[in-house]
Design a protein that fits this description.
alpha+beta; Arc Repressor Mutant, subunit A; Beta-Lactamase; 2 domains; five-stranded antiparallel sheet; two-stranded antiparallel sheet; 7 strands
């Protein structure tokens, strides 16, 4: 069974010094559209295209780009002279991504999915003891009462665990997998899992579908589907699951719950910086 383990320059002075501060801020605001265009472009851009998209003459854009190059925000390729985002822009982006809190980003997505599907939605992350539930969008369904924040789910017999086992590196899950196989119980018997080969066959199917499913195993009468969430490094960082009563939750590969779960996970993954195709 699962375990529960303001924008101001700050100066009161008037005159030329105040005017210089104001001009400096205004200059930054004028140049920033160039960076926005580069951030949204799929590839490096020539000066004329970049300037037109930012709404300024090429001669003016060139001056701003020269300053951005010196600061590391922009680079100019030697071949063709096209402009692209520079190393400091990348550093800023990565710093911003590191400050994103997946818990806060996830809750509205979980709530919307619960309202759409009419069933309990939860999210788990990988912790020391395995897949650990950290967010819940609950329903009055009595089957949701066994799910609590802090619950650690089995690796091989829960949809959460199977999702992590399918998409995390094997070295991350190996110890828990071997421990569960070494102490067979009724859940493993119901799942038909006796050997690592049995597990690998099951996980290959889940990886191919992008969804993990568990029915009538951890809790009789309950079914669940789980899908992975990826971050900017395209590393699995969480799983989202729909949990409901068998015969009331469609667990088919191409059913509405599966499609909506995948869409929600992709939405959260994009907000974490993952590639669109991941």
């Amino acid at each position: 069974m699962p375990r529960v383990v303001n924008q101001t320059d700050g100066s009161a002075s008037a005159g030329k010094s105040g005017e210089k501060a104001s001009v400096g801020i205004n200059s930054i605001e004028i140049g920033v559209p160039l960076l926005k265009v580069l951030a949204q472009a799929p590839n490096a851009l020539p000066l004329t295209t970049l300037a037109a998209a930012a709404g300024m003459p090429p001669s003016k854009a060139h001056k701003y780009l020269a300053s951005f190059i010196r600061c590391g925000f922009v680079i100019q390729h030697e071949m063709g002279g096209r402009y692209d985002l520079g190393p400091f822009a990348l550093d800023l982006g990565l710093a911003a991504m590191r400050r994103i809190e997946i818990m806060d980003l996830a809750q509205p997505i979980l709530d919307d999915l619960r309202d759409l599907l009419g069933t309990t939605i939860s999210m788990a992350v990988w912790a020391n003891y395995g897949p650990t539930i950290v967010r819940i969008a609950d329903t009055p369904d009595i089957m949701s009462l066994t799910i609590r924040i802090g619950t650690v789910m089995p690796l091989l017999t829960s949809s959460f665990g199977r999702c992590f086992a399918a998409f995390l590196p094997r070295q991350t899950t190996q110890e828990i997998m071997q421990a569960e196989l070494a102490r067979p119980d009724k859940m493993l018997e119901r799942a038909g899992l006796k050997t690592v080969s049995d597990v690998d066959t099951m996980l290959a199917q889940f990886r191919g579908r992008g969804i993990a499913i568990a029915e009538n195993i951890v809790d009789p009468g309950r079914a669940a589907l789980s899908v992975p969430v990826f971050d900017i490094s395209n590393r699995m960082v969480a799983a989202i699951s729909a949990i409901g009563v068998i015969d009331r939750l469609d667990v088919s590969w191409d059913g509405m719950p599966a499609r909506e779960l995948v869409a929600a996970a992709q939405k959260l993954s994009r907000r974490l910086g993952a590639r669109a195709d991941r």
